[in-house]
């Protein structure tokens, strides 16, 4: 059986032996890119190489890239624990050609890796291509021997990648595996494509155009290749399991959680175990890359992830802070490939423990309030925005934590009402300051408050107050 660590090295070695430079993962906080919340794909560290702003001593590269898709444009936070394939933190394996090889070679390299090195059977595989990309369809026929029914033409942006409104762009081709009729889901492009039967595991992007201005496409003189394969998804395929959470690495994390709390997962609790294992990984890797929980920006996304995990720990009946106890297991699993986890271990444990200790009291109180407020609500009902805002403002519940807490009961949250309550509070606070005569202080105070968010109510038994200056 191929463990996650073996699959990663098989991928990198394969591309190294095909002339690719093995490049280290870049940090989760993108350097020089304030527009991007977190590194969410392998190509992020090569953006300037693709546009030609930067050159490297190599024309082919391969990486295992740490990626986070929570907050920002790609946000898979709400999927985690509920689909078999989404994680907030995952490793994207990639190969890149900077104006070197193109479509035919990229397809050939991919096909040989998955069928020869990984041993996948052709009969279970299918691909998508962008509807106008006949060239890609022809290569798939020639190289893989696919008939037309295995080449699904997609006309949506799912199969057309663009760096932004301008810059490089091009069609992509995604590789799927059919895991059998016993799993719910339809082929890509069908109404049931979100099911788990057909699993997308590799996306090949053919950067073949430049967009000097939105909507205008001119062929690039030297087109490039950018691909991304989800390591955990490939592991689930090679290990013959139905979800990424049943792969070796996640099994170990879930077992560690089970023994720490003295309770094994069952049908009712398995989602919580999964969310905890996933959120543990994203929290630890974010802290190792210098993100700390806070009330704004990246730090607030981290805080949201940590607090969601804590609510799931609470659901499992855990009384004491839990997350920091799971860190050694993660370091054991991933510390060798990512030494920053080993270096950061003490800080990671300390940060998790502190956040959990501080949030525990308000979490319990807020959940009490939430349960009272929703007692008379049923499936299909909506929680009013003011209560959701009170939970946010007084108890430190990020909006998505409240939404996640109500999800299983089929209750939604009035987000417009939530935003209105937030706007009203800001306006009221400003109004009450009018006439203080200290305009300078006022401006400073409000800009700080807007930046750090509201002060949290932490209970009468603690003196720690965050966001207070
Ligand atoms: P999906 O349609 O399943 O959400 P995607 O099309 O958004 O995936 P890409 O942006 O094409 O994903 O990323 C390249 C590869 O990275 C995917 O083919 C998949 O193997 C992996 N991947 C993407 N998102 C996730 C995630 N949230 N968790 C784990 N792996 C992921
Ligand atoms: Mg996606
Ligand atoms: Mg997709
Ligand atoms: Mg994709």
UniProtKB/TrEMBL annotation:
Cofactor(s) listed: Zn(2+)
Gene Ontology CC, one term: cytosol
E.C. numbers: 6.1.1.7
Domain of life: Bacteria
Catalytic activity: tRNA(Ala) + L-alanine + ATP = L-alanyl-tRNA(Ala) + AMP + diphosphate
Keyword Ribonucleoprotein included in the entry's annotation: no
Cofactor comment text: Binds 1 zinc ion per subunit.
Subcellular location: Cytoplasm
Enzyme superclass (EC): ligase
GO MF annotation list: alanine-tRNA ligase activity; aminoacyl-tRNA deacylase activity; ATP binding; tRNA binding; zinc ion binding
Keyword annotations from UniProtKB, A to Z: Aminoacyl-tRNA synthetase, ATP-binding, Cytoplasm, Ligase, Metal-binding, Nucleotide-binding, Protein biosynthesis, RNA-binding, tRNA-binding, Zinc
Domain called Alanyl-transfer RNA synthetases family profile: residue spans: 2-469
GO annotation terms (biological process): alanyl-tRNA aminoacylation; negative regulation of DNA-templated transcription
Family: Belongs to the class-II aminoacyl-tRNA synthetase family.
Physiological role: Catalyzes the attachment of alanine to tRNA(Ala) in a two-step reaction: alanine is first activated by ATP to form Ala-AMP and then transferred to the acceptor end of tRNA(Ala). Also edits incorrectly charged Ser-tRNA(Ala) and Gly-tRNA(Ala) via its editing domain.
Domain text: Consists of three domains; the N-terminal catalytic domain, the editing domain and the C-terminal C-Ala domain. The editing domain removes incorrectly charged amino acids, while the C-Ala domain, along with tRNA(Ala), serves as a bridge to cooperatively bring together the editing and aminoacylation centers thus stimulating deacylation of misacylated tRNAs.
Protein name (database record): Alanine--tRNA ligase
Phylogenetic classification of the source organism: Bacteria, Pseudomonadati, Pseudomonadota, Alphaproteobacteria, Hyphomicrobiales
Included stretch of the parent chain: 1 to 469 of 887
